[in-house]
Amino acid sequence: MIDSVKDQLKNLRHRFLNSAKNSHLGEEVVIKKYLRYVKIKNNICVDIAASDGTTQSNTLFLYKQDWGGLALEYDSGRFAILANHYKKYPQVNLMRVKALPENVISILDANLIPKNFAFFNLDIDSYDYFVLDQVLSKYRPQLICTEINEKIPTPIEFSVKYSPDHFWHGDHFYGQSLSQLYKLCQKYNYKIVELYYNNAFIMPNETKELKSLTPDNAYKAGYLNKADRKAKFPYNSDMEELIGLSKTDAIKFLKNKFSKYSGHYICR
Questions:
Q1: At what angle do helices 178-188 and 128-138 cross, to 10 degrees?
Q2: First-last CA distance in the chain
Q3: Which residue, of 74, 92, 194, 266, has the greatest Cβ tally within 10 A?
Q4: Is residue 97 part of a domain?
């Protein structure tokens, strides 16, 4: 009887995960889980670097449920696809613009985004830390999903420095480490509630029902100790050496790996 119930639960979870058709690794399931704890019911989400709006999207499933909000994409080709597909979601404002620390607040203000909007998705593959810092200086999203550079372990604080001309070259040099993101959590009274492979989920400290995870515990549970992480991230194989290094040697490794980007990143 117990085994039968377990099998039913497994089947339900399998079907639920498979229903997350747009997100990359089933992030929709995690988002749904934490939205249950969001007190502000404005059904507004902001997606910065929305790509074509469908491929690996963490927000499309919400827009399909009549959520409103804002989707930003800078690449002209991707934005064209986004604009065409989102004709069916007129409640979502679209902008072809590059989100920068100096313009992101004015963009949100111009689109009348509520201060405590429900969900924020951020994935710009570069100076994410500095854009998020600006957003949190004025806005307080109730759930944030932000990509991290998952191959850089705790306690290393790493971030690409802000430069308006920077763009991702398709290598390992992008974004921020989980420990760097934690600095923003401390600054703005947020907490890490989960790391899901390469996406960190953070919520305001006033969400009392959920415990705060340390960067180390979140990293181990959400990436390092995942049995399938090497299968899901085979392109990280040349960074695996980092895992076993001392803090000093890990920083030396990164400085050597990112030698051509010298002066363009924080690493401590």
A1: 10
A2: 54
A3: 92
A4: yes
Average pLDDT, integer, range 241-258: 96
Tell me how far apart the alpha carbons of residues 187 and 65 are, in angstroms, rounded to a whole number: 33
Give me the CATH number covering residue 219. 3.40.50.150
Rounded Cα distance between 169 and 189, Å, is 33
Residue 8 lies in a domain: no
d(CA 29, CA 16): 7
Residue 22: which of 72, 62, 69, 68 has the closest Cα? 62
Structural domain count of the chain: 1
Q: Is residue 31 part of a domain?
A: yes
3 state SS of 150: coil
Q: Which of 26, 201, 54, 19 is nearest to 120 (CA)?
A: 201
Grouping H, G, I as helix, E, B as strand and the rest as coil, residue 61 is helix
Q: What residues make up the domain containing 55?
A: 23-267
Q: b/e map of 160-182 (b: 16 or more CB within 10 Å)?
A: bebeeebeeeeebbbbbbbbbbb
State pTM to two decimals.
0.91
Give 109-119 pLDDT, tens digit per residue.
999 999 999 99
Residue among 159, 125, 120, 124 nearest 139 (CA)? 120
